[in-house]
Structure formats: C-alpha cells, structure tokens
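[stage:ingest] chain + small molecule (zinc ion)
[stage:ingest] validated
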Amino acid sequence: MHFLKKCDPRSYVKKSRFAPKIKSKMKLDILAIAVHPDDVELGCSGTLMMERANGKRTGVVDLTRGELGTRGTPELRALEAAKAAGILGLDARENLGMKDGFFRNDEEHQRLLIRAIRKYRPEIVLGNALEDRHPDHGRAGQLIREACFLSGLRKVETLDEGGSPQEHWRPKYLFHFIQDRYTHPSFVYDISPVFEAKLQSIRAYSSQFYSTGYEADEPQTYISSPEFLNAIIGRHQLLGKMIGVPYAEGFLTEKVVGVRNFDAFVQADT
Ligand SMILES: [Zn+2]
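[stage:predict] done
[stage:export] tokens:
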C-alpha cells in the first residue's frame, strides 16, 4: 500500500535526501504545504484529520528538511515527520529538499513546487501564513501562493520525474494557516474531536518540542519549553471560543469563500 510505504520511517529518510521519486498521478483532495517539517502539525493538522474523517484524501509536502533547526538532525526530523504522518493518517508526505533558510521565491523553486501541485492535483491547499515570526514562513507563504496560481497556466510547462509533460492544475482555494503570530482569522475550523491527536502529532517531533523522553544535551529554544506547548493549547482554545467550541484552527483567505448551504456552519452560542 502506498500509504504504508510512504510512512515507513526508513523509506522516508532515504527518500527525503533526494528529489522525490514520482511514479504515478496521485490525486488528493487536500494538500498542506509548509516550509519546515512540523509547521503543518502546528498549523493545520487538526483540519487535515477532520477532512480525512470525512472521507477526503490528504497529504503534506514539506519544502525543506528543517536542517537549520537548533535541536535534532535532519535524519531525526525525517523520522519524526514520518511518525506524525502516521498519526495524521496521510495518504502521502514528501519532502522537496529545498534549503532551509535560504530557499527563494524564484522560478527554480516555483517550478519545483508547481510540479508537486500538479502531481497531487489538490482541490484545496493549506499553506504557511503570508507573514509570521519566522521569515521562512512568510516567504514560503508567498511561494506557495504564486506556485498555486502559476500551476494553473497551461503555458507553464513542467515534466514529472519520468520525463512526461504534466497537465496544468490550479487548486480551487488556498488557505493560509495561522501559526505563530496571531492574526485575526478569515474563518476558523472546529477541530475539537481530534485535538488530542493533534497534540500527539506535535509531540512526535520530540527533538523540537517539550518531551520528557528527549534527553539530548542541546540548548533550549523558543519552541522547546513546556510553555510553548501550553501557548499552543491556549491559542486553539482562543480560536475555538470565537465560535463556541473547545478548540479550533484559524485560516486566512484572500479569495472569497462561496457556500451552497448553511449546514456546515458551526451554530453554537457565542
Ligand atoms: Zn517553521
């Protein structure tokens, strides 16, 4: 099974060192794209799990291996990403191997990402915020935004890894997830049923976040203290409170969202 193969930690480590092998078209409904392995878990993993429970096919494309992270190693982070993928029940996860900290929003990187978007042909993309504490997040947000648009232009030609031309594809919506800096959301997604699983997926990155099981002699960072995880919980409660549910994730959209009926709206007392 493709999913099991993808989430075998050893195969993930091996693949993540090089450009991923693309064998066949693999249509997804929702694709989350983010610059560092763990951004998706922090920003939108609850939404991915809720959509999966609703029968949707979900996947993640990590742009870099997070090799500039103060703690842990790229190999360890790849193992952690694979463990988190198992918790989220992803249909696919791959790493584009861009340079952490030094990737650019230029043609070379846009083409690499366009190729991944055309491979998975997602209806909806969830991506980094357009501005955040870490400058990589904002730059990745812009890169994702432009690649999603350019991917829809048929005269932008790309080849898959087998050398065959790819068909153009534009996701219908791009939603930017709120990660570190607070921004007033365009909408929030109720993730209360899967919030514990979301925390588990974050804790899978035991080198990065507070974990009693990780005892390497490495410096503490902004994100490795118990207070950081408490702040994550508080943030989700704050977003949940806006719509009268225990926990929610927040998103920003530039495009107006269209609805066909009001049944999907959370209707709680607020
Ligand atoms: Zn990050």
